Amino acid sequence: MGEAITLDHLVKKLEGLHDAMRKGELEHGEYDQRLARMITELRERKLVAERPEILSTLQDLEQRGIVTASVRSHIVSRLGLA
Predict the structure, then answer these.
(1) Is the dihedral of CA 18, 20, 24, 26 positive or negative?
(2) Structural domain tally of the chain?
(3) Best label site of 29, 62, 64, 67, fewest CB within 10 Å?
(4) What is the pLDDT of residues 34-50, one digit of tens each?
(5) How far apart are CA 56 and CA 54, in angstroms?
(6) Mean pLDDT throughout 16-35?
(7) Which residues pair with 6 in a beta bridge?
(8) How many CB atoms lie within 10 A of CB 75?
(9) Residue 33: which domain range?
(10) What is the pTM of this model?
(11) Are 42 and 74 spatial neighbours (Cβ–Cβ below 8 Å)?
């Protein structure tokens, strides 16, 4: 197990996935696979942030169009934040 993941790192990873999709560098299946790996990594290594901060950040990412409502909901559910 590696060191814990910061919230800033998570944001950069999600922004990177969004940019790759927007540029056509990833297909939907690849996006889904990378998102699943990212969530698994978060569960294994833990996210260094409090629940309200995580939820607020995910809400901001949704409002900025970086993640969809369903992706935000999926992350929240898989991390046990619901």
Answers:
(1) negative
(2) 1
(3) 29
(4) 999 999 999 999 999 99
(5) 5
(6) 94
(7) 48
(8) 21
(9) 5-78
(10) 0.89
(11) no
The DSSP result for 14-64, as a single string, is HHHHHHHHHTT-S-HHHHHHHHHHHHHHHHHH-EES-HHHHHHHHHHHHHT
Collect all residues with Cβ–Cβ distance below 8 Å to 75 and sequence separation of at least 6: 39, 58, 67
Amino acid (1-letter code) at residue 66:
I
Residue 6 host element (H or E): strand 5-6
What is the reported pLDDT for 1? 60
Residue 1 and residue 45 in contact, taking contact as beta carbons nearer than 8 Å = yes
Query: How far lies 15's CA from each of 1, 21, 78, 82, in Å?
Result: 24, 10, 19, 22
What is the reported pLDDT for 37?
96
Burial-class residue 46 by CB neighbours within 10 Å (0-12, 13-18, 19+): middle
Strands 5-6 and 47-48 turn out to be: parallel
